[in-house]
């Protein structure tokens, strides 16, 4: 509306401005004012009008006051997920969890085998079973050759070949010889039993003790025995059960392989605690 008014005003100004007098070098003539005005108006182009309007327009005014904040628009659509960022630093360890349920029993990983001298049965400790019962045997006490150890011989032996070799080592039954704690067993043959424990894998015989270390299981307590010190045969020390028993029906005093009790001396041993008036004890332990 304002632009239209300005254009009309411009046309009126041009029409009313009058016709100029044109003087030539050789003649003078008058031009009709109406014809001049018409000519000027007809020569006004839109570009001239726009330029004139720009001239008439004043300078930009000062900025107005900021309008009120518009209403909040609707929520836009969710954008696509961004690129995954780098892995952060590890956090501190969490609290300790509750203990889980007990697992199933595992497979047996071994066991321990020992010989109980002086008894035909095994102790009644948990997990102990009898492998076989037998008779104690060894080399003759007068012979310097042969084996140095006592053997627990099965009651029912097996053989492979018939006949005898030209030279041999001889095996004899073993007897108790004048044992103080069980004097009624003098000259009786010695029984034995081979025992197996499935939950323990180590076996230990401790001389001069009647108890096992705290983490071990006691199998039996007894007396330390071997051959007599004047005999030609040297025998390995063995632990004979304190509740020894004889082989039934055999007390013939054959004097072949023998079990004698052991007494300490003060030669090389501290006295006390060792004494020369008591026999040496022993204990068999497993773990």
What are the SSEs and their pairings?
Layout: H1 2-15, H2 33-42, H3 46-56, E1 112-117, E2 128-138, E3 151-154, E4 172-176, E5 191-197, E6 203-207, E7 217-226, E8 238-241, E9 257-261, E10 281-286
Parallel strand pairs: 4-9
Antiparallel strand pairs: 1-5, 2-3, 2-4, 2-5, 6-10, 7-8, 7-9, 7-10
Would you kindly provide a brief summary of this structure?
The chain is of the alpha+beta class. It is 12% helix and 22% strand.
Describe this structure in words.
This protein is an alpha+beta fold and 287 residues long. 12% of the residues lie in helices and 22% in strands. It is built from three helices and ten strands, in the order αααββββββββββ. Strands 1, 2, 3, 4, 5, 6, 7, 8, 9 and 10 form a ten-stranded mixed β-sheet that branches. Helix 1 crosses helix 3 (46-56). The protein is rod-shaped and about 165 Å long. The protein starts with a helix and ends with a strand. Residues 18-33 have low confidence and may be disordered.
Helix residue percentage: 10-25%
Question: What share of residues are in beta strands?
Answer: 15-25%
Q: Could you list the spans in which at least 5 consecutive residues all have pLDDT below 50?
A: 18-33
Shape: rod-shaped
Major sheet details: 10 strands, mixed
Query: What oligomeric arrangement do these chains adopt?
Result: single chain
Overall structural class, as computed from helix and strand content, comes to: alpha+beta
Order of helices and strands: HHHEEEEEEEEEE
